Amino acid sequence: MTYFPNVPQVKFEGRQSTNPLAFKFYNPDEVVLGKTMREHLRFAVAYWHAFTGSGADPFGSGTAIRGWDRYSGMDLAKARVEACFELLQILDVDYFCFHDRDIAPEGDTLQETNRNLDEIVALIKENMKSSGKKLLWNTANMFSHPRFTHGAATTSNADVFAYAAAQVKKALEHGKELGGENYVFWGGREGYETLLNTDMKLELDNLARFLHMAVDYAKEIGFDAQFLIEPKPKEPSKHQYDFDAATTLSFLRQYDLLPHFKLNIEANHATLAGHTFEHELHVSRINGALGSIDANQGDMLLGWDTDEFPTDLYSTTLAMHEILLNEGGIGRGGVNFDAKVRRGSFEPIDLVYAHIAGMDAFARGLQVAAKLIEDRVFAKVLDERYASFKSGIGADIVAGKANFRTLEAYALQNKEIQNASGRLELIKSTINQYLINV
């Protein structure tokens, strides 16, 4: 290994292992509810955090020590490809994800930028062929460059809209070339700061036009990837149009885009929207739109997107419970570690430790969630709590047989109303028992 010297491939050793370079819960061959952990979880490494992130924050420069950073320009881009496939091999992870600007530098013109991308995509393709690794999804970075200061598809400048379309056209072509199983639209600056200078209707209409163009072009070139939209409420815009799952689904329905898109749900984005991760997964699932997830967690004491590696077993268990209940599980999506090591964790080995922690957390969540489903723990709770809708007047309501007249006649019988306890504390205690004992 060039960039991770003396780091062996990480193997499963079980929960009693004290080896920091071993999985304690993630056994890729372990069968859970009829599928292996590898098939359930479909782990992916995020190119932007693992290979381009420097550890910089608003108050300090980067701290990360990375062997590839001794290069620059296209040589740096090529070294990052090598580092990516080294880490995938070490972790025995099948997938990776990237933004176009992660993998190759921008040139002075769009033509030069595209040539840079073509060269690196060809190198990635070679490495994919020799290693068997796959592209979970790619996307276009339309938020970093100053041209996107007012947005991309929702910009106030038609020239920027055209540039963004050309950028996504190229990204779709590269996704097809690399066999990408999904393509993500993340509206980094698709939002606004104030309504005082914003034509919201025009911006939303233009965003819909842009997405329809993308759908049409993907069909034209035969790129059959699953299209995903990733909700986020704020950062960098104050108000983003894809605020949360419900808002995004409403937009997709309004503009006849729902048949073409599912959602990529990120844990930290959920908390920024004032929701739990499982809430956003649940909303997506019951609307038939859960496509993939970005696995991370936020710091509840901080109000921004900290993108920490996921280690909260309670959260990963409830997340996996939603995914297991989803038709087809995670389907064509996966568990992408859109997460970064802390600024103080600056050595290359910390990237390995961090991914082990996240993979074990989701593997444990999968085990516990599967047992909760097998024992019908939540199913029994719901059956008991909503039992009144299974017979009598409740069954009439659900069947659509009731109306205000029949319901009033029922209420006028003046039967004593008796509510049952929700027993939330007991439910949480039960989850804790499963976390400890499974």
Description:
- The chain is α/β, with parallel strands linked by helices and 438 residues long.
- It is built from 16 helices and 14 strands.
- It has an 8-stranded parallel beta barrel, surrounded by 4 helices. Strands 1-2 form a two-stranded parallel ribbon. It has a two-stranded antiparallel sheet with strand order 3-4.
- β7, α6 and β8 form a beta-alpha-beta unit.
- α5 packs parallel to α6 (158-177) and α10 (277-286) packs parallel to α11 (313-325).
- The longest helix has 27 residues, at 348-374.
- It is globular.
- The protein starts with 10 loop residues before the first strand and ends with a helix.
Question: Topology of this structure?
Answer:
Elements: E1 11-12, E2 22-23, E3 31-32, E4 35-36, H1 37-41, E5 43-46, H2 47-52, H3 73-91, E6 95-99, H4 100-103, H5 110-131, E7 134-139, H6 158-177, E8 182-185, E9 191-192, H7 200-221, E10 226-229, E11 239-240, H8 245-254, E12 261-266, H9 267-272, H10 277-286, E13 290-294, H11 313-325, E14 335-337, H12 348-374, H13 377-385, H14 392-399, H15 404-411, H16 424-437
Parallel strand pairs: 1-2, 5-6, 5-14, 6-7, 7-8, 8-10, 10-12, 12-13, 13-14
Antiparallel strand pairs: 3-4, 9-11
Give a quick set of tags describing it.
alpha/beta, 14 strands, 16 helices, 8-stranded parallel barrel, 438 residues, two-stranded parallel ribbon
